[in-house]
Amino acid sequence: MDVRIVICGMGRVGRTLVGLLVQKDKDLRNRYGLNLKIVAAVDIGGAAMAPEGLPLKDLMAHLEKGGRIEDMIGYGKKGFSGVEALSSGIADLLVETTPTNITDGEPAMTHIRTALSKGRHVVTAAKGPLVLRYNKLKTLAEKAKVKLMISAATAAALPTLDVGLSCLAGTEVLTAEGILNGTTNYILTRMYEDGCPYAEALAEAQKMGVAEPDPSLDVEGRDTANKILLIANEVFQAGLSLKDVSVRGITQVKPEEVDRAKKEGKVIKLIGKVERKEGKIVASVAPMTLPADHPLASVRGTEKAISYLTDTMDRVTVSGGKSNPMGAAAAILKDIIRIYRE
User: Fold this and answer.
1) pTM of the full predicted structure?
2) List of domains in the chain
3) Residues 202, 196: Cα–Cα separation, whole Å
4) Known catalytic residues?
5) Omega into 107 within 30° of 0, i.e. cis?
6) Which of 69, 258, 303, 314 is 20 to 30 A from residue 172's alpha carbon, by CA?
7) Does residue 237 register a pLDDT over 90?
8) Rounded CA gap, 39 and 260, in Å?
């Protein structure tokens, strides 16, 4: 089966996905019967287009030499937008990898709405539109009878949604708890294991590239809030918005609190949590003191994990998965395969 893809956003995740498609081309054909063709690659300055599919090895070579997407010889179109590509009738599916924007969700919001309104499947790594307009976008997808897949937006390669939606089918999920941000888990691990002060651990994480120069999205808990909101809405069908999630980050976690927890045989972790409470679905983010036998207590460094408590399967926990562009690209590819296998 030929699948014609428009990809919007040619940053690290977009480029990694192109490389992954080159690497996995034969496997995708043999195992899944899929011929994934990128017919348009769009970035801020324009696009490269080919209705029959772009030559991906040539595209990668062009980008690796520092070339801009719109300057690719024979394929470049300066100023050509994602909306124009999606409206041209050459695509079956949108892959959205533009930078996350929690303020208004753009440009991903417009790309996703355009694709859904034209009956195209969507696979997105951008959290902004999902955090801001989840219910409306899901309704739009349902009306168009297409899929809106969001694995890469909920902790990259960690299969948070696959476990909650597929592996736990037939159960009632009572609680979901997750370590969903590698930066904060790294900082808390250093504070716990080595007595490292918060500021020193943060500076170390920034030097390693684990934390951004502006780490506020991570350390204030907002990145975890975005992810736990999506888990609440997908797995629990909660219909929540970001204002419904109480959020407290790790900036006020003091060394003496970490030391006290350690002496008691416990550990402090930043936990995103969804639970059923008094007939309502409640979502929160906060540092929590976990006993040593809690399945999330042993998650160290930049590792992430999700733990579900159910009525019939008891507790199911999964950890690991790359938290980098390759992890996100792999999650995007997984979602594409799922669309066409189902």
Assistant:
1) 0.92
2) 2-157+325-341 (3.40.50.720), 160-319 (3.30.360.10)
3) 10
4) 227
5) yes
6) 303
7) yes
8) 57
Question: What does the alpha-carbon distance between residue 63 and residue 68 come to, in Å, rounded to a whole number?
Answer: 6
pLDDT by residue (tens digit) across 258-273?
999 999 999 999 999 9
How many other C-beta atoms can be found within 10 angstroms of the C-beta atom of residue 27? 10
- To the nearest 10 degrees (0 to 180), the angle between helices 56-64 and 12-32 is 160
What are the residues whose beta carbons fall under 8 Å from the beta carbon of 144, sequence distance 6 or more? 116, 117, 118, 119
Residue by residue, DSSP assigns 107-172 as: THHHHHHHHHHTT-EEEE---HHHHHHHHHHHHHHHHHT--EE-GGGTTTTS-HHHIIIIITTTSP
Q: Looking at the predicted structure, is the pLDDT value of residue 323 above 80? A: no
Cα angle 136-140-146, degrees, rounded to a multiple of 5 = 135
- The angle formed by the CA atoms of residues 212, 213 and 216, to the nearest 5 degrees, is 70
More confident residue, 193 or 211: 193
Asked if 133 and 101 touch (Cβ cutoff 8 Å), the reply is no
> What size, in residues, is the chain?
342
330 to 22, 146, 151, 254, 325: CA distances (angstroms):
13, 21, 10, 37, 8
| pLDDT tens column, 141-191 | 999 999 999 999 998 889 999 999 999 999 999 999 999 999 999 999 999
- Which residues face 133 on adjacent strands? none
- Per DSSP, the residues of 294-306 read STTTT--TT--EE
Taking phi first (over 0 means left), then psi (-120 to 50 degrees means alpha), and beta for anything else, what does residue 324 get?
Answer: beta
Contacts of 197 (CB under 8 A, 6+ apart): 191, 255
83, β-bridge pairs: none
- Reading the block at residue 109, the tokens are 């919001």
